[in-house]
Amino acid sequence: VLGGPQSFFNEDSFGWDCGARGTARPTTVIISGSLPKDFPVDYYRHLAETAKKAGAKVVLDASGAALVEGVKAHPDVIKPNAEECEALVGFVPKTPDDFKRATAELKAFCDYPIISDGGAGCWFDGTFVAAPKVEVLDTTAAGDTLLAEWCYQSCASLASGEDAASPLRLRLAVAAGSAACTMPGGEPPEIALVEKLAKETR
């Protein structure tokens, strides 16, 4: 957690001095969430640039002006939802052809776009995975949970240059997002439920 909008965009102050703390140098940095009040709109862009300069892969999950500024650093992965795509491509995708077109246009800003489509499912670099049916209690953090599972499953492959898009990884990510909808207030779902739903995901 970073402590404010001060000027600290350099490797030492950003926390890349991991060797001094006895921890491994990070290979992937995930930048997500809404910017706190009074933070500069280009904050995420500076973070992404710093991470990439240090040799890390960058996953960006933001919206609005923070997304528009953030993609100027050309992160490796971005995850807008359908509505958030409009800020970058000028339209909200609704049909499969729309999502394929949006994916193609988003690749001008990143290497691997992920577009979540609510309860319908998610598009991973143009590949659609439908969401399993669940009894929805609360959609809080569903998209965050989907991305977290995708990162857990795929970031090592992303960092090494291997295929990050195996069908099982994509199904688990969508299943995690769906499972999150069965929990109150953004509480994480049980792993057993995620694995069960992944078997029902196509």
Describe the structure.
With 202 residues, this protein is an alpha/beta fold. Helices cover 44% and strands 12% of the residues. It contains nine helices and six strands, in the order ααβαβαβααβββααα. The protein has a six-stranded mixed beta sheet with strand order 1-2-3-4-5-6, with helices on both faces. Strand 4 (112-116) and strand 5 (121-124) form a beta hairpin. Helix 3 (43-53) packs parallel to helix 4, helix 5 (82-89) packs across helix 6 and helix 8 (167-180) crosses helix 9 (191-200). It starts with 10 loop residues before the first helix and ends with a helix.
Short description:
With 202 residues, the chain is α/β, with parallel strands linked by helices.
DSSP strand content = 5-15%
Provide the succession of SSEs: HHEHEHEHHEEEHHH
Kindly report the spatial arrangement of strands forming the biggest sheet: 1-2-3-4-5-6
Radius of gyration: 17 Å
Number of helices: 9
N-to-C span? 36 Å
Please give the oligomerization state of what you see. single chain
What are the main properties of this structure?
202 residues; alpha/beta; six-stranded mixed β-sheet; 12% strand; globular; disordered N terminus
